[in-house]
Amino acid sequence: MASSNKDVKDPIRVVITGAAGQIAYSLVYQICSGEVFGKDQSIILHLLDITPMMGVLQGLIMEVEDISLPIVKNVIPTDNEETAFKDVDVALFVGAMPRKEGMERKDLLSANVKIFKSQGIALDKFAKKSVKVLVVGNPANTNCYILAHYAPSIPRENFTCLTRLDHNRAKGQIASRLKISPDLVKNVIIWGNHSSTQFPDVRFSTVVVNGKETSVYEAIQNDNWLKNEFVSIVQKRGAAVIAARKLSSAMSAAKAICDHMRDWWQGTKDNEWVSMGVISDGSYGIEKGLVFSYPIHIKNGKLSIVQDLKLDDWSREMIDKTQKELIEEKNDALTATSSQ
Ligand SMILES: NC(=O)c1ccc[n+]([C@@H]2O[C@H](COP(=O)([O-])OP(=O)(O)OC[C@H]3O[C@@H](n4cnc5c(N)ncnc54)[C@H](O)[C@@H]3O)[C@@H](O)[C@H]2O)c1
Ligand SMILES: O=C(O)C[C@H](O)C(=O)O
C-alpha cells in the first residue's frame, strides 16, 4: 500500500476503534480517500477491534487494498491497545455497543464506560500528546468524559465528542421545511448531550432563500413548529432510524465524523460555527469539566466556544435540562468505573 506520489505529506497515524463495525465500514473509505485530512496528506491507519473480529478486519483490509487509494501508506489491524494507540495523531473512538429499539443511549453506560476507562489509560500512555480525539460510541459525551479523566496527560482541549450528526439533522430539517439545499442553512447549534435532552437551537441561524439571507425564524414564520416539532424530531431522530432500520445510523454517522474532523483540521469560516461536544470551561454557566456540546469556531486547529449568544428563559431552561442529565450520567459513570 506504499504511495509513490512525492508530493504527499509525511503520514499521520489515525486510529479507528470498533473498526469491524457498521460505522467504520462507511468511515474508512472517506478517511482513506483524502476527504478529511486532505488529498496530499498520507495516512497510516490503525484499526482496533476485539479479538473475535480480527477475521472481519482482514476482509476490510482486503477491500482497502482493492480500492487502491494513493494516500494510504499502511493499515495496521489489531486487538491490542498499545499497538492501536502508539504515536497516533488522530483517534476516532467508535467502538462501543449501540442501543437497540426502546433503549436510551444512557442505558449503554455501564457496559460502554468500562471500554473508555481502559482505552483512556492506553491513550495516555501511548498516543502523541497532540492527539486529536473524537468520541462517537454512546453515550458519547459521558464516554468522552471518562476517556479524558483516565488520560490526564493529554490537553483537555484535545477531547471532543460527536454531536455533528444532530447538527446535520437540524440543518436537514430546516432545509426540507423551506425546500432549499442544506448548505444554505448556517449556524445551527446543538447544546448539551447527544441524547433526547439535547437542545437544537436555531435562534441565531440564517438561511438563503431566493438569493437573500434571512433568519430561520423569519423564513419559517412558525415559531410553534420551531420550538416544538422541530426540536422533538431532531432529539428523537436516532431512535426513529433504529425503529426503521433495526440498526443505529451508520452512513450518516460516518459522514458527520468526517465533517467534524475535516472542520477541526481545516477550520470554519469567519462568523460561522459548528456543534461539537467539548470539555466545558464554564461557558454559559455549564459545570466546568462536563463534556457539553456548544457552538464551536475553529481556526488553525484551535477550537473556541462561541461566546455572548443571548439565552432567553426558554433556552436557559432547555440548556439546564440537558446539563442536569449530563451531571447524572457523569456521576453514574464515575461510580461504575471506580469500582472496577
Ligand atoms: N455520537 C453519535 O452521533 C453516534 C451516531 C451513531 C452511532 N453512535 C454509536 O457508535 C457506536 C458504534 O456504532 P456501530 O453501529 O458502528 O456499532 P457496531 O456494533 O456495528 O460496531 C461496534 C464495533 O465495536 C467493537 N468493539 C466492542 N468493544 C470494543 C473494544 N473494547 N475495543 C474495540 N472495539 C470494540 C465491536 O466488536 C464492533 O465491531 C455505538 O455506541 C453507537 O451507539 C454514535
Ligand atoms: O441513536 C442512537 O443510538 C445512534 C446514534 O447515536 C444516533 O444518533 O443515530
From TrEMBL:
Domain called Lactate/malate dehydrogenase N-terminal: residue spans: 13-159
Keywords: NAD, Oxidoreductase, Tricarboxylic acid cycle
The protein's name in its UniProt record: Malate dehydrogenase
Enzyme Commission (EC) number: 1.1.1.37
Active site: H194
Family of this protein: Belongs to the LDH/MDH superfamily. MDH type 2 family.
Domain (Lactate/malate dehydrogenase C-terminal) ranges: 163-334
Organism, scientific name: Rotaria sordida
NAD recorded as keyword: yes
